[in-house]
């Protein structure tokens, strides 16, 4: 089993907090408290709350785009239009 890093723990807590309370309803102190870390650690890793949100979005979309690329590669034998239609499906 892979050990969760402190950085990942903060990201997991932030994701949950943003989902439950929204971006504006969540403070860095809320995240730090639930993750049991110091607020300065969040500043160290992410600069601020916006940097944390940007990291979460990038992390999500990198995985998503990777899956789309993997599916596109698996349909390499199709012409580009058919491949696009299959990906959309």
How would you describe this protein?
This protein is an all-alpha fold and 89 residues long. 75% of the residues lie in helices and 0% in strands. The radius of gyration is 18 Å and the shape is elongated. The chain contains 5 helices and no strands. The mean pLDDT is 91. Helix 1 crosses helix 2 and helix 3 crosses helix 4.
In brief:
With 89 residues, the chain is an all-alpha fold. Helix content is 75%, strand content 0%.
Secondary-structure topology with pairs:
Layout lengths: L5 H16 L6 H8 L3 H8 L2 H26 L5 H9 L1
Helix pairs in contact: 1-2, 3-4
| Unreliable sequence segments | none
- Average pLDDT confidence is 91
Strand content: under 5%
Structural class: mainly alpha
Order of helices and strands: HHHHH
Which radius of gyration do the C-alpha atoms yield?
18 Å
Largest sheet: none
The end-to-end distance, rounded to whole angstroms, is: 34 Å
What's the number of extended β-strand segments? 0
Helix content: over 70%
Count of alpha/pi helices = 5
Inertia-based shape = elongated
Descriptive keywords:
89 residues; mainly alpha; 5 helices
């Amino acid at each position: 089993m892979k050990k969760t890093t402190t950085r990942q723990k903060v990201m997991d807590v932030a994701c949950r907090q943003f989902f439950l309370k929204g971006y504006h309803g969540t403070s860095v102190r809320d995240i730090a408290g639930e993750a049991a870390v110091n607020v300065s650690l969040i500043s160290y890793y992410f600069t601020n709350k916006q940097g944390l949100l940007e990291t979460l979005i990038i992390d999500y979309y990198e995985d998503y785009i990777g899956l789309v690329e993997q599916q596109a590669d698996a349909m390499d034998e199709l012409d580009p239009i058919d491949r696009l239609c299959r990906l959309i499906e």
